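Q: Please design a sequence for this.
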């Protein structure tokens, strides 16, 4: 049996669509249509297919999804989607073959990391992807806040996308920058209007407006993508201008009301960066108990360790300068188990140098999960040292203090509409 791995031709895209539906079933048919024809980031070169005796039997998509790092730098990221093999061709290594090919493509494209979402994590772990936590919240409004708790000068109205989009885009970037979020998609402007992300949840429903004189001359200082559910509402994305923290209060009150409208139970749920002010304020204003759920359906893979650290290096230097820690020095050599890669960080006189030398004073053998937990600030360096202690790794206080400056804890989020 001869297998050909290649890109489809543009005229084969309708067949590719049918193969996807053959592998995943009919339910996501519309989603796949939009992925191919209504996503402005889509290009035929991102699709790899396996062909057996002239028939397309397996498919992988590497979506172009650059993501923010601490709200200030951008990591080129390849999003793996649509991994599917027709039922009668499964178990013969086609998906594995295409994923290996996708990794080579991402290396050529200069992607620093890769992301995917799955329920069969061990399958992808064999190829170097590692589970990464995503936070969801849920609460049930107990008491509706008083109207007079709405901050003066703020109001919430339905979004009018065409009119509001320029300001929404600005709020999106300010929010990511101000809260120093990682993993949020660095969206091209057109993406906001594409049918594919809209279908997945990128559909602003409400905007928070701060009045400037009259209501008509207000400025958009926040937005949310909210969808009605049987019990209340679900949020697939939200953001506010961090210089306007009262926007969160105005939004929380509007959402609480909506979740209780039409005799609904008042359940508000959704994805969130961990410890984001919105769920916190929502719970405190409505006397609700806030529940969090951590899922590990997201997986991340290092494509280029050195490049990832190089992109982060200017932010590391900024942190050293802000903390007046230019006198701190040290070096760490990260030796990653999957894919096998080595990179060294050397800190001296406030400067951070990244290399692939293998001669640092501290050598740290890490799994991809351990690396990402530190790199994306999910854990503090202190917590991280405990996670690695069972391997015999001992970090002294100075090393922990330095790692905390290089990799400060922060939150991350990947919003619903950016999926692939
Ligand atoms: C998952 C899927 C893409 C694998 O395709 P394939 O061409 O058979 O893959 P390979 O032959 O390279 O590898 C088969 C591996 O899939 C894994 N796998 C498949 N389905 C699985 C499941 N439901 N749970 C856990 N592992 C599963 C097996 O572990 C197997 O690994 P093994 O070879 O070590 O036994 C295919 O089963 C499929 O199309 N499923 C439906 C769509 C889907 O769920 N895609 C994944 C979305 S994240």
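A: Design:
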């Amino acid at each position: 049996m001869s297998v050909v791995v290649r890109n489809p031709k543009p005229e084969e895209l309708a067949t590719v669509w049918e193969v996807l539906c053959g592998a995943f079933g009919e339910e996501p048919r519309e989603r796949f249509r939009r992925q191919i024809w209504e996503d402005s980031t889509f290009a035929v070169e991102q699709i790899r297919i396996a062909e057996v005796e002239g028939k397309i039997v397996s498919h992988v998509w590497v979506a172009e999804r650059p993501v923010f790092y601490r709200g200030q730098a951008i990591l080129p990221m390849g999003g793996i989607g649509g991994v599917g093999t027709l039922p009668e061709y499964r178990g013969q290594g086609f998906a594995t073959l295409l994923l290996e090919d996708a990794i080579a493509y991402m290396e050529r494209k200069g992607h620093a990391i890769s992301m995917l979402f799955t329920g069969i994590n061990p399958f992808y772990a064999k190829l170097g992807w590692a589970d990464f936590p995503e936070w969801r919240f849920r609460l049930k409004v107990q008491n509706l806040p008083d109207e007079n708790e709405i901050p003066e000068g703020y109001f919430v109205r339905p979004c009018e996308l065409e009119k509001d989009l320029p300001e929404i885009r600005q709020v999106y970037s300010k929010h990511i920058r101000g809260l120093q979020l990682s993993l949020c998609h660095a969206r091209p402007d057109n993406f906001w209007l594409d049918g594919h992300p809209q279908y997945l949840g990128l559909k602003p429903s409400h905007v928070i407006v701060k009045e400037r004189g009259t209501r008509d001359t207000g400025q958009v200082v926040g937005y949310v993508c909210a969808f009605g559910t049987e019990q209340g509402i679900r949020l697939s994305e939200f953001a506010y201008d961090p210089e306007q923290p009262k926007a969160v209060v105005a939004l929380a009150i509007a959402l609480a009301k909506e979740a209780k409208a039409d005799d609904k139970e008042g359940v508000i749920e959704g994805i969130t960066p961990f410890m984001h002010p919105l769920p916190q304020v929502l719970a405190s204003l409505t006397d609700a108990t806030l529940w969090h759920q951590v899922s590990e359906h997201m997986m991340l893979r290092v494509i280029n360790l050195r490049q990832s650290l190089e992109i982060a290096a200017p932010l590391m230097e900024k942190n050293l300068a802000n903390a007046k820690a230019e006198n701190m020095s040290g070096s760490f050599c990260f030796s990653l188990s999957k894919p096998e890669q080595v990179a060294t960080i050397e800190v001296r006189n406030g400067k951070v140098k990244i290399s692939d030398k293998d001669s640092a004073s501290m050598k740290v053998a890490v799994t991809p999960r351990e690396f990402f937990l530190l790199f994306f600030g999910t854990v503090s360096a202190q917590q991280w040292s405990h996670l690695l202690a069972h391997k015999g790794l001992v970090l002294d206080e100075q090393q922990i203090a330095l790692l905390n400056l290089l990799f400060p804890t922060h939150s991350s989020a990947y919003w619903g509409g950016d999926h692939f």
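Q: Thanks. Anything notable?
A: Residues 23-24, 58, 83-85, 90-96, 118, 120, 123 surround coenzyme A (CB under 6 Å). Residues 304-406 form a domain with the Nonspecific Lipid-transfer Protein; Chain A fold (CATH 3.30.1050.10).
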